[in-house]
Amino acid sequence: LPPFDPADPLGIDDLLEPEDLAVRDTVRRWAADRVLPHVAEWYESGELPVIRELARELGGIGALGMSLSGYGCAGATAVQYGLACLELEAADSGIRSLVSVQGSLAMYAIHRYGSEEQKQSWLPRMASGEVIGCFGLTEPDIGSDPAAMRTYAKRDGGDWVLTGRKMWITNGSVAGVAVVWAQTEDGIRGFVVPTDSPGFAAPEIKHKMSLRASVTSELVMDEVRLSADAVLPGVTGLRGPLSCLSHARYGIVWGSMGAARSCFETAVDYAKSREQFGRPIGGFQLTQAKLADMAVELHKGILLAHHLGRRMDAGRLRPEQVSFGKLNNVREAIDICRTARTILGANGISLEYPIMRHATNLESVLTYEGTVEMHQLVLGKALTGLDAFR
Ligand code: FAD
Q1: Average pLDDT, consecutive stretches of 10 residues, N- to C-terminus, the chain (390 residues)
Q2: Of 17, 160, 213, 366, whose CA is between 20 and 30 Å from 376?
Q3: Ligand 1: centre distance to CA 145 (Å)
Q4: Please, what is the Cα angle at 245 between 238 and 265, to 5 degrees?
Q5: What is the ipTM of this complex?
């Protein structure tokens, strides 16, 4: 029998191909070199001053629009994209958010629903990280029920005129292009908006106590005039943004386990070296029970992510299954972080350790890309056939 590996107790790595391991190692090494030494400082200051450099470097390692093909994208499998999300979020959820929004929301929308001209004009520069993208769906008064959005686009001769506000938009203030969803007389449509368009502004949202190493912004659109070809031709209705969200949520199923792994590993190391009552706290049964329970949920979550990844690669992943994964893995990740926090005692609240940073980040991850309650309602509807949303 192979020896027991505390880093992979279920032997999940046996499911991976050599190319998968190579992707994982590349992203893990990049995060260790470029994020981990600085992220506590970025988090404390609430700023990500090097976001443009990071985006270019992430483009350089093929992490932007990773599972898309053509237009400079890496054409990776869904499992490889998931492994990258896990490694990035093990560093910080903010960095994974940068990558998710760029690849799974903004680029995905253009790749799937854009015209050939839109794809040629934006995707290669987004894949390289030269242009950062954002995705505007949420509004100040509209969150879980995006069908009720108020942002609207009117036709004016051959042009479109876009007016409204979006809120909580990741990457907003640093984006060169915004994919904005708006009401039109034909239903909800997506617009590809260059952020230097007159009437467009993206002030940053300050005072966040979560995802502090991530840029979050408001988008203000005051009669932004766009040419006829700014609309995404391939989709009308909520199906458009929801399909993008499903792709991004899939990345969160993996990513959340990265934050959990970082907290778990920190707790194990600490429990082995911290002594109280004359021996390591990891030698007490109560601490071992915590570590065992954390390991069980962590590796069950990773296994679930793998399962969903394989279904996505086979073209068989349903949105309800993504809801299943997001609901479970983010909830369990938060639980693992909280338990890790208790093992570190007072040190658990310090930024010297990653735990509190991950725990507060995960509060955003629990809410964005569909709240816990929305995913419970998705599953509830799938299980009963009864719609409890309204
Ligand atoms: P609400 O919809 O007002 O919900 C409040 C509470 O009521 C929740 O608990 C919710 O589950 C519950 N609730 C609502 N309806 C029901 C119901 N029918 N039954 C039971 N409970 C219900 N959005 C973007 O478009 N792009 C982004 O890039 C983006 N980035 C984000 C980054 C951060 C850091 C954060 C925090 C948010 C981001 N969001 C983004 C917004 C996010 O998607 C929304 O916050 C989320 O959809 C929830 O909307 P809300 O905050 O308006 O909450």
Answers
A1: 96 97 98 98 96 98 98 98 98 98 98 98 98 98 97 97 98 98 98 98 98 98 98 98 97 98 98 98 98 98 98 98 98 98 98 98 97 98 97
A2: 213
A3: 9
A4: 165
A5: 0.99
75: CA distance to ligand 1 center in Å?
31
Place of tokens 């949520």: 249
209 in Cβ contact with 359 (< 8 Å): no
pTM above 0.90, yes or no: yes
CA distance 371 to 104: 18
Report yes or no: 197 and 161 within 8 Å, Cβ to Cβ.
Answer: no
Q: Which residues are catalytic?
A: 369
Ligand 1 atom at shortest distance from the alpha carbon of 171: 28
DSSP string, 240-261: HHHHHHHHHHHHHHHHHHHHHH
**String of b and e for 307-334 (b: at least 16 CB within 10 Å)?**
ebbbbbbeeebebebbbbbbbbbbbbbb
Residue bearing the CA closest to ligand 1, atom 18 = 389
